[in-house]
Specification:
The protein is an alpha+beta fold. Helices cover 24% and strands 26% of the residues. The protein has eight helices and 13 strands. The strands form three sheets. It has a seven-stranded antiparallel sheet with strand order 1-11-6-13-4-3-2. Strands 5-12-7-10 form a four-stranded antiparallel sheet, with no helix packed on it. The chain has a two-stranded antiparallel ribbon with strand order 8-9. Bound molecules: fe (ii) ion. The site of fe (ii) ion (FE2) has 3 residues, from loops.
Length: 272
């Protein structure tokens, strides 16, 4: 029986994380928990479709509505793929960004002591959840996520962003698993994604004098089983490809930061 309430990372695991910027913790979630989270997101999406008919029934091309996105920091909102399902309906790309606060099932799961417990072992003195995302990556329509670093989007001073990417399906190259560039967390943060001064738009601001494009030539595929947790350093370059398979690739992602750092007021993610 695996004790999932308290996880003690070994010296080798900590060294692997230090060198590579990621670490896979097998069997973080049980089959029962996976089933529960998957069922709950079905209810959340059905509820959103019922309450936000205008958003779900649009026949227009799905445009990125920046206001809808910028207001989502303390809400549960559905975001869509640019491709549609075969029946023409909108395909949900992800649900974010406050499932951990507003939905009892996700709140309970996100409150597992093991999350904070691991975050502390990776250097966060006072770990707090900044955002939660349920990513669906649906068969045939799940789009790619281009190479990026999470600290670009979830910056603190000093940097403290930690990603906890929990597979809720077996993730393989066919259904669009994560890819990472080992060691890329040693490269300084290149950019920050911030709100423009009037708060209505967003932009990237450089953090280094000369921006360097991400080099993904040494990428590795993070193929994991459902229930495995992938820890991601905030500066690790990672991405995923489209889902070309007939299987979904669900994942529940939490981002922690250290509460003892400064959270800039121009970060894109703000709470109303
Ligand atoms: Fe990411």
């Amino acid at each position: 029986m695996i004790d999932r309430s308290s996880i003690s990372l070994s010296v080798d695991q900590l060294a692997f994380y230090e060198n590579n910027g990621y670490l896979v913790i097998p069997n973080f979630a049980s089959r029962t928990e996976i089933k529960q989270l998957r069922e709950e997101i079905g209810l959340v999406i059905a509820d959103a479709a019922h309450n936000s008919k205008a958003i779900f029934s649009t026949t227009e091309k799905v445009e990125t509505d920046l206001t809808y996105f910028l207001e989502s920091g303390d809400k549960i909102r559905c975001f869509f793929e640019t491709e549609r399902n075969v029946d023409g309906s909108l395909a949900v790309n992800k649900v974010g960004h406050a499932l951990h606060e507003l939905n009892p099932v996700f709140t309970e799961f996100s409150s597992r002591p093991s999350y904070k417990n691991v975050a502390r072992q990776l250097g966060n003195r006072e770990p707090v959840i900044l955002q939660s995302q349920y990513i669906l990556k649906l068969p045939g329509v799940g789009g790619e996520v281009v190479p990026h670093t999470d600290s670009t989007f979830l910056y603190t001073d000093p940097e403290s962003c930690l990603g906890f990417w929990l597979a809720l399906d077996d993730a393989t190259q066919e259904n669009g698993c994560l890819w990472a560039v080992p060691g890329s967390q040693h490269i300084p943060l290149q950019e920050r994604y911030v709100r423009t001064e009037d708060g209505t738009g967003t932009t990237f601001i450089p953090m280094v004098e000369h921006l360097t494009a991400f080099d993904v030539s040494k990428k590795v595929a993070l193929e994991v089983d459902a229930g495995d947790l992938v820890l991601l350093h905030g500066r690790l370059v990672h991405f995923s490809e489209t889902n070309q398979s007939e299987r979904s690739r669900h994942a529940f992602v939490l981002h922690f930061v250290d509460n003892l750092t400064t959270y800039p007021q121009n970060n894109w993610l703000q709470r109303s």
